[in-house]
Amino acid sequence: MKCVVGIDLGSTTTKAVLLDERGSVLGQGITNSRSNYAVASSVARDEALTAARFTMLERAFESDQRMGSVETQTLLERLAACFRLEVYLAQLEQLGRVMELLLAGDQYGRHRSETEAPARDILAECIRDAPQLFVPGARRKSDFFRDLAGAAFMAGAERRAREGQVVFERIVALFDRAIFDVETWLMNVEFATLLSRALDRALPDVITDSVRSDVRDEIKAIVDRVATVPIEECSYVGTGYGRQTLPFPKEAVRSEILCHGRGAHRVFPGTRSVLDIGGQDTKALQVDDSGMVTAFQMNDRCAAGCGRYLGYIADELNIGLHELGPLALQSTKVVKINSTCTVFAGAELRERLSLGQRREDILAALHRSILTRAMSLIARSGGIRNEFTFTGGVCKNPMATKVLGELVAEHYGSDIVIHTHPDSIYMGALGAALFALDDLQAGRARLMLAQEKGIAS
Amino acid sequence: MAIAATDVSKDRSQARQKRMIADHFDKLEHAKETGKKVVYTFVPGNLTELIDALGMLPVLPEINALQSGMRKKSAEYIAEAEKAGHSEDVCTYVKCDIGMLKSGNVSPTGTRLPPPDLLLLSYTGCFTFMKWFELLKQEYNCPVVMLHVPYQADGMITDEMRRYIVDQLEQVVIPAMEQVAGKKLDMQELEKRLALSAKAEDDLVAVWESARHRPSPIDGYFGGVYYIGPIFSAFRGTEDAVHYYRELREEVTARMATGEGPTTPDGPTTNEKFRIVVEGPPNWTHFYDFWRMFSREGATVVASTYTRVGGLYDLGFRHDSRRPLETLADYCLGCYTNMNLPSRIDLIEQYIKRYDADGFLINSVKSCNSFSVGQLLVLRELEKRTGVPGGFVESDLVDPRYFGKANIDNRLQSYFQMLEGKKRKGAQ
Fold it and tell me: Which is nearest to A276 in space by CA: A234, A241, A252?
């Protein structure tokens, strides 16, 4: 199987998209950027390769006549969840190994004995409870290992600290040091092995006794075949904030401006204007009928009005980033926040709370404040032309999209079609992959200078 | 402008320019001993021939400020001025100059600058100039004479405007200068210099025009600021300038014949990938970084408006020794910063077409409203008229805090990749 790879190294998350030679999306992956870009791009790429194999599985199941009696979608969903569980378990085991190593180091000295046993117990609980996270219908706030393991580990640590069994700070410090090592640890467990374990978990859930055994064998055969078929990455393009740090030749590095425009246009071919609000930059783009960027503006000198602004506010209120939008939607009264500076907005937020204003109303005002900034950037780039696509991490926020819709209608009329897409965080990587495909077709394909081998290669 | 030669260019003309500048600063340092009077004045609409004809020496604070930026001194000078109470929003040329003054007024070549005997304020399209000299007047307590140059609000120079300036020259400016100089103006001396100006101007225009050639033998922005040095500052109307521009023209002609591109901080240009027109002043604190962002992408600037602030000779203006005062009036009125927005747009459009540019780029500097105002409008209008993509970056003149290297680099790379995409699409 031949494919091309686009990697978008953002300030907050790193994304990878794989396309097949026809330009269809095979898979996409995302991970925290951390402080190690090379690892982040490798992990994102592995995630995308995993997703690609699931796409191939789906294609194989669909083209196989004997699968008629099987709910293939259900099977795939379950298989994917079980695979995630297997990866999570493998990472938890690694976490345990790293903690043991850290505890054996000098710095724990006399605290080793009082930390070691509780840490082991907590980890054992995490492993024991892991399957619960992946049962059908289970809601996970995030699929990042740090978030999953962090939540489970903290819960265990807090309980033990309350019971006086352990010093909370000490055990958390141990976790914090260990998790970093695990995040930068590239799993060398065979993809096929993990998938095979996942299949053993998933099959009993999905395949009833009435399904003939030759169909079961067929499923296993397809999974084995797809898990081991070589995937050849023929062309790479990297983009995003950390692109200069990627082990890519200069020709394989493209500006995120072009990639975001191209990606948005690929998903919504009618797109002529794009707004992308990421972690620390906001881009306003105009594209032509082929997805080429014709004009753009970016924020610089100040990152107020970007995703981090909302992150900062969420931290101030001690709530999750994903909770901001839904809370703001419950606003019943219009208040105005004047600060465009993130830090000042935080101060203003505290002041207004102390005056008794409702959190929901203040949050709504903060959303309006950042989108107003975005609107001025769009105006500078040449305004909004039909159709208009909103991408980047912030478009996942329902209040942000609502406010943007209102502002667009107010400034550019109500007949502007506005697109957002659940996968819009991948637009940059998708655009990069499309450029990689162009390069491949034009005989200019580039590979990474040092291809790090990951889990699924 | 008047930039001391670096290893960027080893040309003979460059060495000559370096000698000219060193010699000039040397004269300034000894001005008090030699009894030479010193006139501080501005680049756009400067009256160099008149100053020289009266035997006085010009000092150009703008050029000192940009030199300080290039020599990495501007940050401390600006801090000095801010400490003295000048706000963050004041033009950084002004603050840099004030800070330099307060730090001992050491010139770019290390010599000491003499205080002015006269502040000659030729007010051309920049209101800040007036405030700047108000501040210097307080510092130096010397006479100020103002030449008010009416703005080309309707995009043209009328007889009334010309008459208004000539009247000021006759009734106010020249008498005030004569008083400081301690002698009467000899019209023949002025005419002689104006004739020399026109000669140098002919050669400078030929240098600008060479950029129509492919590959362009010059960079008309980063390289261009060196080329305008002598003519925009102390040397217009001198034999030195005539020699310099003759030599420069010969060098450029030779490069054209051999198909050589301009010399960049990384050596000679080998591949001209993009031809760009640039609007707005350069950033001086990161001048070479900024230049490299172009040269490394194979982008040569074929024309720029900044190199026309001290005169639009390529539109046909020449100093005319037969109408000495009228020609000075026309010169002052015709500077780029004295043009209204529609005229600026017309000019850039003409450059884009004449120099067959792939793109045009605006560097919007925080300090300078006479440049920055309306630049986004300029961008849109030019895109509409020419179909050539515009780019936009923001920085400042000499305040290093406003040069976000990573951001500017990112924007420029995006811009050049956009141009590349357009080229590829066109080729299909």
Answer: A241
- Residue of chain B nearest A298, judged by CA positions: B411
Classify residue A22 by burial, with Cβ atoms within 10 Å: 0-12, 13-18, 19+: exposed
Record: contact B422-A257, CB cut-off 8 A? no
Going by their DSSP bridges, the two strands A2-9 and A293-298 should be labelled as unpaired
Interface test with A, best of B410, B411, B412 (most A CBs within 10 A): B410
User: Rounded CA gap, B333 and B162, in Å?
Assistant: 8
Q: Where are the beta strands (DSSP E) in A270-427?
A: 273-277, 282-287, 293-298, 388-391, 418-419
A-chain CB neighbours of B410 within 8 Å are 255-256, 298
Residue scoring higher pLDDT (A251 or B99):
B99
- What B164-169 contacts at long range (C-beta under 8 Å, 24+ apart), as own/partner pairs, is B165/B328, B165/B329, B165/B332, B165/B333, B166/B325, B166/B326, B166/B329, B169/B325, B169/B328, B169/B329
Q: Is A340 exposed, middle or buried (0-12, 13-18, 19+ CB in 10 A)?
A: middle
Any chain B CB within 8 A of the CB of A233?
no
DSSP class of B4? P
Contact of A255 with chain B, judged by CB distance below 8 Å, is answered with yes
Q: How far is A4 from chain B (nearest CA, A)?
A: 19
- Inter-residue contact A282 to A378 (CB < 8 Å): no
- Residue from the list B383, B392, B421 with its beta carbon closest to the beta carbon of A297: B392
CA B335, CA B152: separation in Å to the nearest integer? 10
Per-residue pLDDT at A450: 56
B255-269, pLDDT tens digit by residue? 999 999 998 988 888
